[in-house]
Design brief:
eight-stranded antiparallel beta sheet; three-stranded antiparallel beta sheet; mainly beta; 206 residues; 12% helix
Length: 206
């Protein structure tokens, strides 16, 4: 069983180092070179961290951060009322997103995140019954412990191992399933992956 690895932010460490160097540079201390000439220590140039590239994507009932290069696939509401042409409406509570799948057909072979919104008063049953070899994951979303998080092999296809997390916000609940591995190969979609967690923590009810 694999435990979730909590990574230390290199950006935070770099910021602390830059701050220490700036403090030294601003002290006005002079140093003497080997030739006996005074030289003032120059302060390091200020650096800024660029915001992740992407956009806020409106699903209907909620929004999310969709990174550049990712594609959103709206889902059909099969319980909704058909229009005059027999088309079903888009489900405002569900979305698939992927940085590898570019067409609906790609979803059959490429990894994608499955995100579902629930109202705050909805009772959500545990998803563990749909998986085998389940291992609990200890993880927090925006500083708050997830209601349920685990890794397990799909009951319907043993080639797929998923990370599943259910969590609550002030006004909604979300269920996210991402493929940890497909046919034994890791996909990069583990929920402790920084890019995946950024998307999960961006989920907000409308």
């Amino acid at each position: 069983m694999k435990n979730v690895i909590k990574t230390i932010s290199l950006a935070a460490a770099a910021a602390l180092l830059a701050g220490a160097l700036a403090a030294c540079g601003n002290s006005g201390t002079t140093t003497t070179t080997a030739a006996g000439n005074d030289a003032t220590t120059a302060a390091p140039a200020e650096t800024t961290t660029a915001a992740p590239a992407g956009e806020t994507y409106d699903v209907g009932s909620f929004t999310l951060f969709l990174p550049s290069g990712w594609t959103a696939f709206p889902q059909t509401d099969m319980w909704g009322e058909q229009d005059a042409e027999g088309n079903y409406p888009i489900d405002p509570t569900k979305i698939y997103i992927s940085d590898k799948a570019k067409t609906e057909l790609d979803l059959f072979s490429e990894p994608y995140m499955n995100i579902v919104y629930y109202s705050k008063d909805t009772t959500i049953m545990s998803s563990k019954d749909w998986y085998e070899d389940v291992t609990d994951i200890n993880i927090a979303i925006n500083g708050k412990a997830a209601d349920e998080a685990f890794r397990g092999t799909s009951y319907f296809d043993e080639d797929y191992v998923y990370d599943v997390v259910q969590f609550s916000t002030d006004d909604a609940q979300f269920l996210v399933a991402t493929p940890y591995s497909i046919k034994g190969e890791e996909t990069g979609y583990a929920i402790d992956n920084a890019a995946i967690m950024e998307i999960i923590e961006s989920l907000k009810a409308n």
